[in-house]
Design a protein that fits this description.
single chain; about 160 residues; mainly alpha; globular
């Protein structure tokens, strides 16, 4: 535990502050994120962000988005079931299950792309514009995860 805290503290001191170092890029990401969310239910947005953050092992984003989900009224039961949603399908609607599967496929795209059946299931729950926004949100959270992990962001220090 102590070694992990020391490593995190060192990362904070030795890694760039992305916001200050690349403000135009950061603002572009903020704009992309905001545009991606348009028209999507807040609970669905948080499920996408939570699942991708689990898969990417991004504690910073996972902490932030589980807190955001709680503030938006998400239950502790559902939050605990996100990593094992396939074994706890009754906690999630068919639309949410389709989104969780699509989030996994896009996040882990190097493992075999996005299978046609997973894409088709998601497409069955959304019109084309909504599906484009779901995909864009998956892209943005994966980008945010990579920013947080690369720059040594520490869970519990919400620096939005």
């Amino acid at each position: 535990m102590q070694a992990t805290q020391t490593t995190q503290a060192m990362a904070e001191k030795t890694r760039i502050n992305f916001v200050k170092t690349a403000p135009k890029v950061f603002r572009a990401l903020i704009g992309f994120d905001a545009a991606a969310r348009e028209g999507l239910a807040p609970a669905l947005v948080e499920l996408i962000q939570i699942r991708a953050s689990h898969l990417n092992h991004c504690a910073y984003c996972l902490h932030m988005h589980t807190n955001d989900a709680r503030k938006a009224g998400e239950s502790e039961d559902r939050l605990h079931m996100v990593p094992v949603w396939r074994e706890a399908r009754h906690f999630f609607t068919p639309q949410e299950q389709a989104v969780l599967a699509l989030t996994e496929a896009v996040t882990l795209i190097a493992d075999g792309g996005v299978p046609d059946d997973i894409y088709a299931e998601a497409a069955a729950h959304f019109d084309d514009e909504e599906l484009a926004h779901v995909l864009a949100l998956i892209f943005t959270i994966n980008t945010w995860n990579r920013v947080a992990l690369s720059t040594g962001k520490v869970a519990g220090k919400d620096e939005r």
